[in-house]
Amino acid sequence: IQSKLPGVSTTIFTVMSKLAAEHNAINLSQGFPDYACDPKLVELVNQAMQDGYNQYAPMPGATFLKETIAAKVENLYKVKYNPDTEITVTAGGTQAIFTALAAIISAGDEVIIFEPAYDSYAPTIKLLGGLVKTYELAPPGYAIDWDMVKKLFTARTRMIILNSPQNPTGSILSADDMKALIKLVSGTDILILSDEVYEHLIYDGQQHQSVMLYPELKQRSFIVASFGKLLHATGWKLGYCLAPEKLTKEFRKVHQFNVFSVNSPMQQAIATYLQTPANYTGIAAFFQEKRDYFRSLLAESRLELLPCNGSYFQCASYRNISDEKDTDFSMRLIKEFGVATIPVSAFYQKGTDHKIIRFCFAKEHETLALAAEKLKNI
Ligand code: PMP
Ligand code: GLN
Per the entry, which co-factors are needed (predicted)? Predict the structure, then answer.
């Protein structure tokens, strides 16, 4: 069979979690919490099933949930999205990304991405016949020089993918970044796919710079969010896409033939849970405490910590320890030290190796302490 994605193998998250299990290593690789989500949420799902929410939800999402999302967005950002025409509930962020790209990208269209990048972007673009135009960012700050972005523009540039807070680097976009971006796209018909799944995980009092805060960007953007991160329930695979009506219309044309609709009782449960704003406002402080704890533990190792302004990922350089490739180094960490991480080269299509590994700190303190103890002597 002729592969549509010849260069693509199994995603790094599956590979590393499997290796972690095989070697009985502490798994700080794939991003997911090792503690339970709020038991109230589980009760609410049970309740919704007992209440009879066991058949197809409406194609764009349950009305109750879409209205709740609109209220949450307005509460946090003072921006309005119409639940009927501008909000679609999806099977997680990954499906929303796939669907937005499929709705817009045709053969030959170019999409600009910033690497290191979440690993679904490039293969999805290629699957659709699009061309990936990559801007490689470099440690430690992974800052974007917007004049360099402009150099990537051609007549075929159709979309730019943003991801702030960023996976895997934990970097965030500033208000100045957004202003520079506005200058670049004004007067063009370039669209934006803004992956904001870590919107709530932003630290030290910094404000999340959502594209929705800037009308020039909002009107051309699909914004992707994930309840997996917000509710500590990555396995629920629920999220949503915000986009102006003309974009949502195209999004739903694909969504209806991709999944049609998503898990019905969980949509009810999430909507009920989010009626209480305290259930979504404390999350930055919760993770900041974990970040600070993990950083203080790793300070005792020879790893060099990179800045972490957002997300639940901490990157570290091992250049003072070894000059092995990051894939070899992370393999050795699993086998010899019993800790699984992600080699950041996996987030570059060319496999660029800056000798950096990524840790997920969405874990119990006990787990983080055990891992740090093992890493002390590397
Ligand atoms: N975007 C980024 C940057 C992610 O890290 C992830 C996964 N955690 C997703 C999208 C996908 O989210 P979901 O698990 O809801 O599909
Ligand atoms: N986003 C998570 C991570 O970066 C995992 C996503 C996945 O497993 N597909 O680790």
Answer: pyridoxal 5'-phosphate
pLDDT in tens, 263-294: 999 999 999 999 999 999 999 999 999 999 99
CATH value at residue 355: 3.90.1150.10
With a 6 Å cutoff on the Cβ, whether 234 touches ligand 2 is no
Q: In 153-244, which residue ranges form alpha helices assigned H by DSSP? A: 175-185, 215-218, 227-230
Q: Which of 255, 276, 297 is the last residue of a domain?
A: 276
Instruction: Decide: 94 in ligand 1 pocket, CB within 6 A.
Output: yes
Q: For a substitution probing ligand 1, which of 118, 121, 347 has the most ligand atoms within 8 Å of its CB?
A: 118
Query: For 171-191, what is each residue's pLDDT tens digit?
Result: 999 999 999 999 999 999 999
Beta strands in 175-270 (DSSP E): 191-195, 221-226, 239-242
pTM: 0.98
How far does the chain reach from its first CA to its final CA, in angstroms?
45
Question: For residue 238, which ligand has an atom nearest its CA?
Answer: 1
User: Within a 10 A sphere around the Cβ of 350, how many other Cβ atoms?
Assistant: 9
Tell me which residue range forms the domain holding 131.
50-276
Residue 50 three-state SS: helix
Q: Does ipTM top 0.95? A: yes
Q: What is the domain count for the chain?
A: 2
| 120 CA from centroid of ligand 2 (Å) | 10
The minimum-distance atom of ligand 1 relative to the CA of 163 is 3
d(CA 71, CA 47) in angstroms, rounded, equals 23
Percent of the chain with pLDDT over 70: 100
